Amino acid sequence: MASTLGIAAFFLLTELVQRERAPGADVLAVTAEAFDLAVEEAEPGEEPGTVIPAAMALLGLSFACCALLVAGLPPLPGFVAKVALLSSVLAPDPIDGAAWTLVALLILSGLASVIAMGRAGVRIFWTSEERTVPRIRVIEMAPVAVLLALCFALTVAAGPAMRYLDAAAQWLHAPQSYIDSVLPAR
Q: Is 0.85 topped by the overall pTM?
């Protein structure tokens, strides 16, 4: 549930982040990588430390929160879901090879998403090229904030959410009561 909300916030952030990019910047970046064109290094005489505009800081913080949600790092709800999944997979006494494969894939997918999101965040927010700062209105940032707040509320209310999801799973495994309530009795 939290990963769906996190991905929705990512989609909303995409347009806000793309505003500051020059038209055709993606084509130039792909072309530079394809032809192995060298990127100019900064001169050593330049003064380190750049002021980060508030809009970019807000977008970067939102991106980091979404990335942590999708990766399922503690104490966020994605981690709670991973622990629930791992505890049910590792519950049987003789653990078979398929369970260990699922555990390894679950952990490696979290690691891969942290690496991918980290690289994307560095490339988007910490590149040294001159850029224009996007103008962001509160009304545009409010849906992202609401989605992230819902994700953090899922962290606090993990118990009721897990009970609801467990009840839904029980209904899915025993569909006869649903069938009896939907189809009329003969």
A: no
